[in-house]
Amino acid sequence: xxxxxxxxxxxxxxxxxxxxxxxxxxxxxxxAAGLPAPRVVAWRDVLRDGGADFDPREVVRLDSxxxxxxxxxxxxxxxxxxxxxxxxxxxxxxxxAAVAGLRGGRRLDDPAxxxxxxxxxxxxxxxxxxxxxxxxxxxxxxxxxxxxxxDDVRTAVREHRMPRLFVKPAHGSSASGVLAVxxxxxxxxxxxxxxxxxxxxxxxxxxxxxxxEEETDxxxxxxxxxxxxxxxxxxxxxxxxxxxxxxxxxxxxxxxxTHAVVRTSRSPLTNLHLGGRRxxxxxxxxxxxxxxxxxxxxxxxxxxxxACFPRTLCVGVxxxxxxxxxxxFVGEVNAFGDLLPGLPGLSGGPAEGLTTxxxxxxxxxxxxxxxxxxxxxxxxxxxxxRHLLPTRPTPPILPAPxxxxxxxxxxxxxxAGR
Length: 418
What we know:
Blueprint: E1 11-16, H1 21-32, E2 39-42, H2 43-49, E3 52-53, E4 58-62, H3 69-76, H4 88-100, E5 102-103, E6 106-107, H5 111-117, H6 120-129, H7 150-159, E7 164-169, E8 179-183, E9 189-197, E10 203-212, H8 215-225, E11 230-234, E12 240-241, E13 244-253, E14 256-265, E15 277-278, H9 281-290, H10 295-306, E16 314-321, E17 328-334, H11 356-366
Parallel strand pairs: 1-2, 1-4, 3-5, 4-6
Antiparallel strand pairs: 7-8, 7-11, 8-9, 9-10, 12-13, 13-14, 13-16, 14-15, 16-17
Helix pairs in contact: 2-3, 3-4
């Protein structure tokens, strides 16, 4: 590998919302590495102008278009309140069109990868085909029957023996519109969600997690979300830490797991903006090792998941440790899953002491991407961004272990973030 000093520093550009901290944190990392500040291209300008042009030598990073009311209106349609949960299918179509309008440059986020990462049904199918352990799903892949409403969810519960399941908008993010549904004998049912049914008759995001226990209420929410596309997954019992459900967000840069954070919650939704808290990573690692499993194997699962998207530099993998910390499953892979301010790189890892953004800049300095990105995932000329950091042996891909069946038991609004 050539040293960074042996070649010209890359010219960086970032497409994002200029006032957003994601863009600011990346720009800070670029300057800290001794590079000129990246050229910032605003999503609002891309949407207004029908695209943007980049010099062939520019290395282009895409960042989330979320948390900007004007951008959200352009993607979802005029008059659509930023807190609304519905409209994710239109958002998806608009976002992919905006990405397709970016011309030139060398991309760190592959358009074909993004199309899969922002469709939970397609992403689940790709992971499953690669042998990545994932929760069971009857909606995975293009051949699966669509979920047209609550009646289809009820059918899936019965036919796939899923008394506990997650109902997710196919193109959602940040737990927007997600329902954790539990059913039990005697017609009992409960859904835990951040969805608030507003007085205006629409569904809104909320910072408050709430529970609905009337089937008519749950059915109304699902029926309203179904036109945007829904993905169903078996609800796997997760490991716990200090009496709270726990999972992990693992950031993978250039094919290597660089950062990890434990997220804990008293609800099934561990997202930090919904009241989840950062847990103890050292304790989680100790629990994995005490179970007889290997912490390295947990990271390998995340790296294998990221390897399904080899032309995208950085992804965030949601890893679900099973009860007892011995096994793990991949819940989701996130295109913009690196917003973990102040989190240092894993001890002993390839980005020890670096932020998620500094790790990506270092990867670029060590091995800049190749020719301009092709939108065709089968094009051999399209550059891979895997292994920009030092590699380690990867175990063979094995079939996913069978998921345990669950027992049938019941135990302030926010804009949609991307």
